[in-house]
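Extended Data, panel c. Modelled sequence:
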Amino acid sequence: MEKRRPLKRLALYLFLCLLPVILPGCKGEENTYDASGTFEATETIVPSQANGIIKIFNVQEGEILDSGQVIGYVDSTQLYLEKRQLEAQIGALLARDPDIAAQTAALQARLSHALHEQRRLVKLARSDAATPKQLDDANAEITLIKKQITAQQSSLDITSGSLRKAALPLRVQIAELDDRLMKCRIVNPVKGTVLTKYAQTSEMAAIGKPLYTIADLSTIILRAYITEGAFTSIKLGQRVKVLVDDGKGGVRGFEGTVEWLSDEAEFTPKTIQTRDERANLVYAVKIRVRNDGTLKIGMYGEVKL
């Protein structure tokens, strides 16, 4: 037993001497990535565009919605009644619009009779059966009636125009109500997956109040941090390999495209590790990755250039 102790001491001495060499080698095997970060998506907060009680709100978290899909509506009864009231006011106003043809019909009849009399006197004057004065009186009568018709038409046109102008603000109010009625419908603006639902049916909605958050997860963005040394070798549009844990102790690879590079350095985030742990400053990059459904917001990912 006493003879084996020098051998054990020698083995321990050799292990301690080789430890500084072994550890950096192991560390290099672990940190084989150039940048790392977490996945995020462009989120859209959809607000209410109307005030009132939510009558229908058919949306659930995790549900995929199409752009333009109607998913509910806010109570619009009062807006509809206001519109009906304005329409009634316009109807009552335009009911006083004069019928120009009817109100000038009597003068038109007098003019027709005067023209007939003029033609008769012209024939009689050719055979000296009518005096020139009778013909002059007939012509003067025609001129007078035409002036009366013109004056009455002008007056009626002014009255009609005034009524139409008075109805114009009411029509504008109706157009505004139509717009507000359209906004009572809850229409999904972008295609994507519902992330968070903030409101429920029968709750009170207010203009600007968030209803739900949606994001297009068909492609997802990895916001990663890269050291200055590696930053010089990356460019926009470059294809890179993105690695994520597969949940079985291994990694799974995705192809990504660099779509944004920060132009300012920042301090290394505490939750982010890079290959060069001695760097105090890193640059943020955004890498867009096509998502097959396995990538989730907040997942950790690594990048190899």
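Confidence is low (pLDDT under 50) at residues 7-30, 275-279. This feature is highlighted in the accompanying rendering.
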